[in-house]
């Protein structure tokens, strides 16, 4: 396994095709390929796809920024991702980059492709857009996440009004900021436009926990103060962002060579909200 924290994308049956498309576009490899769950790596980063049905549609509230070290690399990815997709911001020169574009690909995933001359350790960075009732809360969210997770920090902040910018936006709100949680980099922005979308379960953040103590700590914090528990380790935090808090032990038990044991663990997990490792082990041993 590479990163402990990674994004999960919800698909309606075409996730296997999408994973192959992303691996072909960016280079990488598929590490788990089943009808319902696909894990793949791009630039050494883990991503996950669930083929889970039509319930949720992906949108630009969570996009993926790809940092490129040449304009040619930007054009290469743009060409592939825009084929059958929809340009949200046309590729071109912008104040923040000589070559940048924002595109929704043919599978509904949105990408920000950007040339940068800076050295970048993490090539793909999820970007969280705080809109509607969350507009103006990007800074609060960064503080909340970096306080909660160990080995975390706010790395950079740019605010509206500091260097001109969009007159439609509120001065002092976050134009673009970058932060890390347990060493995994994310970015965020406030946005004042009345977009017809918001956070939903179509893009979630998975955290693989080491033990029950870590599982409890993250679950309790993320469901507090307006957060909401769901089933099978899923939850929404107070900003509406979806998380999956998944003990590593769950994956170990479900992947036991004895399919009957794995099935019992799966059936027990399906009855849970927060994952209880002791109950999983009891089901495994029964």
The description of the largest β-sheet is: 8 strands, mixed
For the termini, the CA-CA separation is 29 Å
Shape: globular
**DSSP strand (E) fraction?**
35-45%
**Named CATH architecture of the largest domain:** 2-Layer Sandwich
Can you identify the CATH class of the largest domain? Alpha Beta
Mean pLDDT: 95
Question: How many H/I helical runs?
Answer: 7
Strands of the widest sheet, in order across it, are: 2-3-4-1-13-16-15-14
What do these coordinates show?
With 286 residues, the protein is an alpha+beta fold. The chain folds into two domains: 138 residues, Signal recognition particle alu RNA binding heterodimer, srp9/1; 76 residues, 2,3-Dihydroxybiphenyl 1,2-Dioxygenase, domain 1. The chain has seven helices and 16 strands. An eight-stranded mixed sheet has the order 2-3-4-1-13-16-15-14. Strands 6-7-8-5-9-12-11-10 form an eight-stranded mixed sheet, with helices on one face. β7 and β8 form a beta hairpin. α6 runs antiparallel to α7. The longest helix has 12 residues. It is globular, with a radius of gyration of 19 Å. The mean pLDDT is 95.
Compose a concise summary of this entry.
By secondary structure, the protein is α+β, with helices and mostly antiparallel strands.
